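Sequence only, no structure available. Ideas?
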Amino acid sequence: MGVFALVAAVVLFVAAIGSAARRGAGYDLLPLSVAGRLVAAGETGHVYAQDPQFYNLTADSVFRQTSRDAGTAAEPTPFVYPPLIAVMMRAFAGVPFTAISQAWGVLSVLFVFIGLFLTVRLYLPSWNTPLAWAGLLLALCWFEPLLYGFWLGQTTAVMLPIVIGSLALQRRGRDVAAGLLLACAVFIKLTPAVVAAVWLWRGPRRAFVWTVAGVAALWALSIAAAGAPLHEAYVRRVLSIGRVVLVSFNNQSLSAVLGRMQLPHAAWFDWRMYHPGAALAVIHAAILGVIAVSAVVSVARLPRERPERWRPLAEGFALLFMLLAPNIAWTHYFVFLLPVMAIVVAESGGTVAPRIAAAAAFVLCCRPLLAPQDVPYLSTSSLFVSGPAIAALVLWGTLIWIAARTRRDDGSTVVSR
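Reply:
I predicted one. Tokens follow.
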């Protein structure tokens, strides 16, 4: 019975994410193909083209024409990855974008299964049964961050197994491999560096050192392959992104949530880049400071000698900070809430309240409460638009509650709840 249910759930899950991928135009995969073609044609000056007002547009005729040459009429979004990625995509410059999109869709399904498997094995091994997997996969058929990522053709599908895989390797004492694997994630997206900060703070510092070494090696390779001018353009692009507030409905960062409270509803749908006022910047920094300090204090009270107690909590805080702190955190990034939910359930100690919080966080990210991100959002409520961000804050508070309920009898022991 369990195996039959699992097979049926796998079929339904693959159908759900496959349908999302087919309906999408690969908006976020297309810039990678275009960047590879631009590098192959020697048009590197157009790789980091960006509209001065709208984040999702390039306003560059060469970039747009190259997109059409790839075989798609879709409006390309800007390329925001390191130059080495563009150089690597040069190998596929002659491949039609439809073929690249289809191949990436198949690989993404595989990557997601690997990421989910690693999450369950790492945090909830008791769930590694056919019936539990069937229930999980059926529930994920409505999990919007995952569906949205497939609609966009995003790289989040591969980022999940890379980050969780690095944590799994660290658990096995393979610090070098863990550091090098996490270095790949940091190189691509920057924000996973928060996970490495846990290793720097509480160990193993060897894993942190190898993360730094891996990132340095990748950047050296990137500069050698793409040259300094393209990297200067990339740095300018990253710095410009860091100075803006984007209040679009699919940006779930803390700064976006605060910004949506101040700007009209129409501003949520045009991807216009705003510069934050002093008041917003101060409030944002203050809230981030509070949640960062609360996490550090919660983990610091647990003895270093018992990593099985503090490490999952520290990793959960790191994953949540990775989502809340940047000024841009798209809805599909919040697939990283799944390992945090697993941590909350695993560390609940049989208490009902954390499990309810994890379930509530999941529902906040699911259809129909969170509308499909590929269609115009009709709700006027910032509460529902910001469902994933609110879910992250709920999980943050739950982790603090779990840490506070972990009782210490002396300086070296932790008594289970």
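The first strand starts at residue 407 and ends at 408.
Hope that gets you unstuck.
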